[in-house]
Amino acid sequence: MKQQIIRGFRATLVAEIVRTIAKGVLMVSLASLFLTPDEYGLLFLAISVFSASLLFSRLGIPRSTARYLAEFRETNPGQVPHIIRDSLRFLTAVMLTVSILIAVFHQQLAALFGESELAPLLALGVVYISCWTINSYVHTIFQGFNRIPWSARVTILTNVTTLLSVLVFLVAGFGVIGALTGYVLGYVLGAVYGLTLLYRLLGEFDAADEREPGLRRRLLEYSLPLTVSDGANVVYKQVDTLLIGVFLTPAAVGYYVLAKQISDFVIAPASSLGFTVSPSYGKYKANGELEKAADVYETTFKHSVLFYIPAAAGLIVVAEPLVQYVFGPAYLEAVLVIQIFAFFIVFQAIDKITNDALDYLGRAKHRAISKGVTGGFNFGLNLLLIPTIGIAGAAISTVVSYGIMISVNIYLIWSELPVSLPYLGKSVVAVSGIALCMAAVVVVALPMVTNLVSLLALVVVGVLVWATISVTSGMLDVQNVLS
């Protein structure tokens, strides 16, 4: 199991590194070379509308399917083809319905935001939403099959082709509409490749003559709490952007999205670890090995905070020169939001190793309740704070709500597994001390930063200070990590 997790983690980490580099190049290229803050905000306002639509275009079906694949491929593999076929039928029906509705009402949606230039972007919604939905489906399905490297392949192809396509259209002078077309093309190619791999994989399973009674019903029933969780994700990740688009300007959307993208850029390794480890919880629970499952969670928690609390502290300190020298002075209004989102990075890192684990432990319903309630709280807080204090209010709403949700989800893990809460607490305290020492060194050296090269040198110094203290304190075992 350890070797299987390590192989999956390495494959997913490579995919996340590729995704992160591709997103980073796109972020810098779009913001500093090709688009103005208004155009940047308009592009990602359209993408936020599509992202919110993804909730209804998949309805929790991919993760519900993955959950039952993980169970039946071991106990009754003849049901696997039936699970895939049924889930694809359900997914196609809802996906096409949502895509067509967006296409039909794209003018009205643009009018809702008071941005007529948004309409031609939303018209691409049919292809964008359909291919993104299929892409998300195959990526999650391969997790259920425990073919993590296959998910990684889809991620790599999608992001590399998206990067190349967007840059080609931008260099050709097609502007915002060209950039969005590049995103569409990337998702199209990723979806086609993923479906090809899935077809190949299904050839390894002989379908049983009869479908297990109630299987379709169980598949749909389990997708309901997952839909609620996805709905909360939409609130956390997209509704704030949409509300900024309603209450403020496209430029404000651009500043806010840039800050969020930087936080997503930093979070990639935690995404890899959580995605890879999660299926093992279901296997350990099925075998009654709860102590092993608890040990896996404690270890992943410790290493997640060891990386991300110092990363957040460093981001708070260098946020202003980072924006100044990478994106230009036009985006300096994003600095405060980036600093607030540093706390969100820590919460999100913990969420990445906790979220899917609860699904595989059979606690999707309770996780959905926690996400749904805090998501509603986040929405209300956004409505209150965005009109009063602007984009900083949206960031504060997200951080506060996410912190509450993470606390509840850790409690759910503790109620399911013999996890030591004092151990988790001690890890946070010890790492916070390391982060403060590292941040102090960076603050002292900050006046010497006058350009991008000196900023990168300061980051390297910060990393070396963090690594030295982490190793000498015993928090980081280099030999174990390398093995």
- Beta percentage is under 5%
Averaged pLDDT: 82
Counted beta strands: 0
Kindly provide the radius of gyration, computed on alpha-carbon positions and rounded to a whole number of angstroms: 22 Å
Number of domains: 2
Order of helices and strands: HHHHHHHHHHHHHHHHHHH
User: Biggest sheet, in brief?
Assistant: none
Question: Distance N terminus to C terminus?
Answer: 15 Å
GO cellular component, one term: plasma membrane
Transmembrane segments: 12-34, 40-61, 88-106, 118-142, 154-177, 241-258, 305-323, 330-350, 384-412, 424-446, 452-476
Membrane topology: Multi-pass membrane protein
Pfam family, one: Polysacc_synt
Describe the structure.
The protein is mainly alpha-helical. It folds into 2 domains: 1-241, no CATH class; 248-480, no CATH class. The chain is 86% helix and 0% strand. It has helices spanning 2-34, 37-58, 61-75, 80-104, 106-112, 119-122, 125-144, 148-171, 175-202, 215-247, 250-266, 268-286, 290-327, 335-360, 364-389, 391-416, 421-445, 452-472, 478-482. Helix 8 runs antiparallel to helix 9 (175-202). The longest helix has 38 residues, at 290-327. The two termini are 15 Å apart.
